[in-house]
């Protein structure tokens, strides 16, 4: 029989996870977990609802950056003006997930820990150099978002660990991010390809720093260093865009499935990388 | 294992119920509290027929455990009309024939009310995107959107 507990401290949540006899699952928004309970794909013995932990939900500014609580729903992320201004790519990625109803509950931590290769918010978070605070029996550790997902449905978190918050760094001047995904309809679908790009420009409009991350074209989101290198040291001219396109395509290791063939996903990844970089560059040059 | 005792205001009335951990809010609304206005369409958060608001936030009640409702204010379709006085959205749905089989209608009304509570003057595009999580296999949506925009105009006093 399924047990449910809603601890009010991080330490109690860790103790509940560590002491569970069988499989324990973290519940925040539940938009993946409840579907998996219903289908039988997840058969936990214990559900640990983290939403009663003070401060676990909400967005706050800190040291020029942001802290996003693990249980913050997408709708709350989208309503935060400061976050929308500083990290438009993360906000647009988070808000692409599901319907209005899903946005009322779904969280970044859930999107990450569900570990779908096509998770929309993950490329944007990695492009932003976001970190997550992982709580466990030995206290808290802060790790890059890209260290969490190890494969489809798999994470590096221990059975007695969970994500409590995300940290976004302070933005340098003339920097911005963007996220685009390709789906064959206008709304509510799973990415065929997703691209997150974060760039910083100098006063002359030359790119001094870039992060390019592809989603849905490999078992996990992939940080493509060669694609970023195609942007750095240049303005966003055709040469840079061609090099970016080629580097993005070379990094793809997609599967064939009903949403797209290997060849199609690879080609689209290059196109989407161009478009996303162009948006990020335009945003950065307006700052 | 004992059941959970949950206290929550539903449509402004204090309600208490007992539930097992795995039951969804939709299960309890329909089967325990006999509030059958919220419908079970897909049970996977895709169709929106079970839409309710929790502390004013639109959610699918099939994707929320009943035990999570403790201390949070729930609004359902049953709270929308006041006695025989229909909410303007309900009247406009009738006037515009924005329903056929009616299965999606409670969810659409709850979702549309959540939209107008937040944004009294939505554009057609905003209304279409907001309601994209409410599937209707009969109407083709045009009449639904017309009804929502007409209700919004009436509620603005136009």
List the helices and strands and how they pair.
The complex is a heterodimer of chains A (287) and B (158).
Chain A: E1 3-5, H1 10-19, E2 24-27, H2 33-39, E3 46-49, E4 59-62, E5 65-69, H3 74-79, H4 81-86, H5 88-95, H6 100-103, H7 108-113, H8 121-127, E6 131-136, E7 139-144, E8 149-151, E9 154-155, E10 162-168, E11 175-182, E12 193-201, E13 207-215, E14 222-223, H9 225-231, H10 238-251, H11 262-285
Parallel strand pairs in A: 1-3, 2-3
Antiparallel strand pairs in A: 4-5, 5-10, 6-7, 6-10, 8-9, 11-12, 12-13, 13-14
Chain B: E1 4-10, E2 13-19, H1 25-32, E3 51-54, E4 57-60, E5 74-75, H2 88-95, H3 105-118, H4 124-130, H5 142-155
Antiparallel strand pairs in B: 1-2, 3-4, 3-5
Helix pairs in contact in B: 2-5
Q: Features of this protein?
A:
heterodimer; A: about 290 residues; alpha+beta; Uridine Diphospho-n-acetylenolpyruvylglucosamine Reductase, domain 2; Enolase-like, domain 1; 5-stranded antiparallel beta sheet; 4-stranded antiparallel beta sheet; 14 strands; globular; B: about 160 residues; Ubiquitin-like (UB roll); DNA polymerase, domain 1; 2 domains; 3-stranded antiparallel beta sheet; two-stranded antiparallel ribbon; 5 helices; about 30% helix; about 15% strand
Task: Give a written overview of the molecule.
- The complex is a heterodimer of chains A (287) and B (158).
- Chain A is of the alpha+beta class and 287 residues long.
- Chain A contains eleven helices and 14 strands.
- The longest helix of chain A has 24 residues, at 262-285.
- Chain A has a five-stranded antiparallel β-sheet.
- Among the domains of chain A are: 1-49, Uridine Diphospho-n-acetylenolpyruvylglucosamine Reductase, domain 2, CATH 3.30.43; 175-285, Enolase-like, domain 1, CATH 3.30.390.50.
- The termini of chain B are far apart.
- In chain B, 32% of the residues lie in helices and 15% in strands.
- The longest helix of chain B has 14 residues, at 105-118.
- Chain B contains five helices and five strands, in the order E-E-H-E-E-E-H-H-H-H.
- Chain B has a three-stranded antiparallel β-sheet, with helices on one face. A two-stranded antiparallel ribbon of chain B has the order 1-2.
- In chain B, helix 2 crosses helix 5 (142-155).
- The chains are: A alpha+beta (287), B alpha+beta (158).
- The interface between A and B is medium-sized, with 27 and 31 residues.
């Amino acid at each position: 029989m399924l047990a449910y507990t809603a601890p009010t401290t991080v330490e109690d949540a860790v103790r509940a996870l560590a002491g569970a006899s069988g499989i324990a699952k973290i519940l925040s928004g539940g938009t993946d977990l409840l579907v998996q309970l219903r289908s039988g794909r997840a058969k936990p013995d214990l559900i640990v609802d983290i939403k009663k932990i003070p401060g676990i939900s909400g967005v706050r500014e800190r040291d020029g950056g942001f802290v996003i609580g693990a249980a913050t729903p997408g709708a709350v992320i989208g309503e935060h003006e400061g976050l929308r201004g500083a990290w438009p790519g993360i906000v647009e990625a988070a808000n692409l997930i599901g319907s209005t109803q899903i946005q009322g509950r779904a969280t970044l931590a859930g999107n990450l820990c569900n570990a779908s290769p096509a998770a929309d918010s993950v490329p944007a978070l990695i492009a932003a150099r976001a970190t997550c605070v992982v709580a466990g029996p030995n206290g808290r550790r802060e790790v890059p978002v890209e260290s969490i997902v190890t494969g489809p449905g798999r994470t590096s978190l221990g059975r007695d660990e969970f994500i409590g918050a995300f940290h976004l760094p302070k933005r340098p001047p003339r920097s911005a991010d963007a996220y685009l995904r390709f789906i064959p309809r206008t709304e509510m679908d799973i990415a065929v390809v997703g691209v997150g790009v974060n760039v910083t420009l100098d006063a002359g409009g030359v790119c001094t720093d870039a992060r390019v991350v592809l989603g849905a074209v490999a078992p996990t989101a992939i940080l493509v260093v060669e694609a970023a290198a195609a942007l750095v040291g240049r303005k966003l001219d055709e040469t840079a865009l061609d090099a970016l396109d080629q580097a993005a395509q070379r990094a793809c290791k997609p599967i064939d499935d009903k949403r797209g063939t290997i060849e199609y996903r690879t080609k689209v990844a290059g196109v989407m990388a161009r478009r996303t970089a162009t948006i990020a560059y335009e945003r950065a040059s307006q700052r | 294992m004992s059941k959970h005792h949950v206290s929550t205001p539903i449509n402004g009335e204090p309600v208490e119920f007992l539930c097992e951990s795995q039951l969804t809010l939709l299960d309890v609304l329909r089967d325990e509290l006999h509030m059958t206005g919220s419908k079970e369409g897909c049970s996977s958060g895709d169709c929106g027929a079970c839409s309710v608001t929790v502390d004013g936030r639109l959610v699918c009640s099939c994707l929320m455990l009943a035990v999570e409702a403790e201390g949070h204010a729930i609004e359902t379709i049953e709270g929308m009309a006041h006695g025989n006085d229909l909410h303007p959205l309900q009247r406009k749905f009738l006037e515009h024939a924005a329903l056929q089989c009616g299965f999606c209608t409670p969810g659409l009304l709850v979702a549309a009310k959540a939209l107008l509570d937040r944004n009294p003057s939505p554009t057609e595009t905003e209304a279409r995107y907001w309601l994209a999580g409410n599937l209707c296999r009969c109407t083709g949506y045009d009449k639904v959107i017309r009804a929502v925009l007409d209700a919004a105009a009436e509620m603005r006093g136009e």
